[in-house]
Amino acid sequence: MTWVILEDVSLRDGLQFEQKFLPLEEKLILFHLLVNAGLKRLQVGSFVHPELIPQTADTDEFVRVIKDEYPDILVTALVLNGKGLERARDCQMSHLTMSISASDSHSRRNVNRPSLEALTDMIELVKSAVDSGIQVRVGIQCAFGCVYEGAISEDKIVEMASRLAESGAVELNLADTTGMGHPMQVKRLVKRVIHAVPGRSISLHLHDTRGLGIANMMAGYEAGVEIFDVSAGGLGGCPFVLGASGNVPTEDAVNLFDQSGVHTGIDIEVLCKVVDRYEELLGRLLPGRMNRVIKAQNGFCP
Amino acid sequence: MTWVILEDVSLRDGLQFEQKFLPLEEKLILFHLLVNAGLKRLQVGSFVHPELIPQTADTDEFVRVIKDEYPDILVTALVLNGKGLERARDCQMSHLTMSISASDSHSRRNVNRPSLEALTDMIELVKSAVDSGIQVRVGIQCAFGCVYEGAISEDKIVEMASRLAESGAVELNLADTTGMGHPMQVKRLVKRVIHAVPGRSISLHLHDTRGLGIANMMAGYEAGVEIFDVSAGGLGGCPFVLGASGNVPTEDAVNLFDQSGVHTGIDIEVLCKVVDRYEELLGRLLPGRMNRVIKAQNGFCP
């Protein structure tokens, strides 16, 4: 494999906890710039209750505006229940991202029931979307550990992935929600899940909370993963840890793969202009490294 | 291999470009705290001209104070020429770190001659130290690339390592001075150098400029490296790139290896108190992640 697909989630996961509200027009500009940089998959919003995530309340309108304009781009959005699926159908979405937690504690906090009970509902939701001709990927949260429960059984992850694949999900996304994953674990679990769901794609959503995001990405690549979630500038992730970044910065992932001779189709210099725009809009520097390095160019010490 | 040795370089590489001058008493406290956390190897200063690096002008005094107090700790310092070696001998140092660049441009900037010419002098310096019963490690700077020259020939690195090993260096340290190394390259070059210098140790000094420090560390470990340079809090590295951290934070490396089941002998919670002290002394947060994560404990979002 000499290529990978990077899915930028900055417009959804990146913005969802930001205090500053970006208007639709601005998000459309950011989307356009990301596509210009070479991104082919973008997670642009959530079909969830506007009170839960006000930042993505404009998702319906957003996808209607861009739907026909970008036929080559995979545009996806988060759906968590039947109401969200209805909205997504009304918007004629062809791809959706769903999410379930492998941690019982986390699952109870989110949907008031343990994960295997939540799985039953999720399977119905996946089937319903698939019956409408929608491609579905399901993210399994806390796949590499949970701050409440510690380690999560790998057998449980494999079982959840298998059942979701059987129900029609085309892609299983293993999410390191807490940033507790480490490279050896990523390799081991990814290989097990790939083996358990033949014919399905496996993707990774890695948080950099403990500084292991890029190392885990490399481990995932070595284990056979071809699709990775990233976020321009490293925007998003967990907002409650001071100084901790969340998602792997898109530009740092592009550099990793560029250096490794693995094709992403993304122009890092064009991409960094989008990071600039995010930084200007949000009024702070984002944690990604390559935007700084490219600006410093030869001005830094060897 | 289920253990690694982490050499903390915060007192030397970490402090050398800091504006704020730390007095000897404070450095001794920091050293003591690092040893308490479990560090067994520390690079504490430089025997270079005080005008070049004023921060380490007290190295002679520092090592005299601690020399007999810590018999189990490997205390090392940087030496770049014969005058420095004389001072180190006067201080009865038993281990020294020397340094040469594999990049001709970088070497010319540092010692006014290309690297293979500088190698001739370095070999004499190594021999002279070894003849005095001093163990020597030599760092090969820009081993993974140079901002002026781009890629550096791997054959050249292997040749330099071989000749330094023949001259008596017990350890070759491959330094990613510019942070341009990437995991596949680290694995490939480390394996070649290990093969070329049987009976010598190979260590890695990795900069996190492009966010690949930890990923490169894991790659080095997988390729057989047992000794890694780290710096508490991620202090040090290149001060001229805004927002770019330099050295791999000791606490983040400890977490990586703890999670991977690899023994470091270091207690991360005790270590983070040293990071706190550095942050207080220098008046800013350092880039390491684990100090933040440990403080946030269960207060952060899963």
Structure description:
2 copies of one chain form a homodimer. The first copy, chain A, is of the alpha/beta class and 302 residues long. Chain A has 12 helices and 8 strands. Chain A has 2 domains: 1-79 and 231-237 and 248-302, Alpha-Beta Barrel (TIM Barrel), CATH 3.20.20.70; 94-223, Aldolase class I (TIM Barrel, Alpha-Beta Barrel), CATH 3.20.20. Chain A is 43% helix and 16% strand. An 8-stranded parallel β-sheet of chain A has the order 3-2-1-8-7-6-5-4. In chain A, helix 2 packs antiparallel against helix 11 and helix 7 (154-166) packs parallel to helix 8. The longest helix of chain A has 17 residues, at 115-131. The radius of gyration of chain A is 18 Å and the shape is globular. The mean pLDDT of chain A is 94. Chains A and B meet through helix 5, helix 8, helix 9, helix 10 and helix 12 of A and helix 5, helix 8, helix 9, helix 10 and helix 12 of B.
What would the keywords be for this entry?
2 domains, TIM Barrel, eight-stranded parallel sheet, 12 helices, 302 residues, 16% strand, homodimer, alpha/beta, 8 strands
